[in-house]
What does this fold into?
Amino acid sequence: MAKRRFQMDPRIKRELMGQRRLLMLGLICTGLSAALYGSSMGLIRRLLKDLEKIGQTRALEDFDAMKISTVLIIGVFVLRYFFTRGQTYYLAEAVARLTNGLRQRLLNKLLKLPVTYFNEKRAGSIQSVLTNDVNVFQSAVQILRDSIEAPLKAVVALILIIFIQWQMALITFLMIPIMGIIIQRNAKKMRIAQKQVQVDLAEVGAVTQEVLQGVRVVKAFGAEDQVNRDYGRLLHTSLKSQLRSALLVARLRPLVELLGAVGLCAAILIGGWLALSGNMTVSDMAALAFALDAINQGFRGISNLSSTYSSVQGAADRIYSEILDVPLPPEHTGRQTLEAINGLIEFRDVSFVYPDGTWALRNVSFSIQPGTSLALVGPSGAGKSTIADLLQRFYEPTSGSILLDGTDIKHLDVAWLRSQIGVVPQQTFLFAGGIDENLRLGTPDASDEQLTKALQMAHAEDFSREFRDRNVPVLGERGVRLSGGQMQRIAIARALVRDPSILLLDEATSALDAESEKAVTAALQEVMETRTTMFIAHRLTTAARADSILFLKRGEVIEQGSHSELMAKNGQYSLLFKAFSDGLLEDNLG
It folds into this structure.
């Protein structure tokens, strides 16, 4: 049981093995540096003996011997300088490469996880893993260093004590099991406490991000004091967990030092007793003091291993449980691509159930002819966004099939399929870089001419040119330097840069003023003529412009047809549109 208890977590070991060359070089330097430190104590003892002898003989040859000892000590420390420098550099490079590689793997895994994962997780909690937990995890390299340096210092010093005076070594042997028991008993408590610290810090990070992103809402509702109080309570919880961890560390480290000091004083007293009987010299006593202090340093380093490993273990648990061990969805097996796309989209008896058992769609069937548009209409929760997500293969249908030009999209390569769809979401998301960087998202090789053409089609060329003329290279977080309408037009341009065969518009003109909406609508009408377009229509006026309308309610198709056809039916769509026309209903279905 004891052997298993002290065994390093295989996950930590696996990460460290990725940097084994640098770690090996750094640890070799660490071992040699520690060995040289131990040998310097023997040379110091020799130097002090030469000094004692000079005091007795006043002989020149004894002074020459002292000079040789001095040169040897300097030589040892010169060598130690190079090995210590090598240790510092190689281990620092290993840490940098370890953290960079780990963060790259974490982001790569996150990008492969399904949309449902991000629906269930808080962005701040995920970010905490990438920042706080990875920063803590890098201390695994420190564990390797200390696990070699600390014991080696203690062992070399113990050998010196045995060589000088074996009786003195008995005291050291008595202290070792006592310190080992104390360190072991504290290790498990510290591991549990440090894991809770990491969890609480992640919660603080998540709430911090939410507050910063929603600061306008907080101010608008006058909720500054309320948010501040809630944040204070969260910080207090985090503080308590940190203090519990600090208390365990505070108990262990000084206790190890105290035991070391007791052992040192006891050894000095025994040394004094041996000196009375002529079995101990001043040089031996000084060398023993150095050696005992080195042993004390070694045990302090070993005690630090326990607390450091507890922190790393807690970070590793979160890194793996929150991200790396999260199962990936079944791999998309489709590898097929189509040489030319006409744009015929068909949903055949498609049903979809979310993992929590909620039905989103029930036996939905419809088709969109090439070059035509379909508006998805219905109240909030009707299944409009689910249809769009299924088309992009963010999810797979529970039953039924979705076809593109007669080919089931599950047989198509996912990356290729998504490259054929230009998406303009209702809630526009722009990255903090420049306009060109945002336009080239997903199309990094797009030429300047392609960008200009897309901006013209989205009626965004004028203000984008102004940004370039004012030398504004960065749009700010989430495009904060742009107005809502400008952000929406950049999003439309971004969708058009890739020259998609299919357009997926989630009320793409919702954030525009009347003049901009008219201009962009006209531009979209032009590009839609040669593309299959699916609207998620939150406004009845938008739906009326589509070639065909699919009216949904609670995941089921209620009505389907053109605006004029549905108005003639006098069904639910007709009733809603008439109520809107008579001013009894707002032009927004949610």
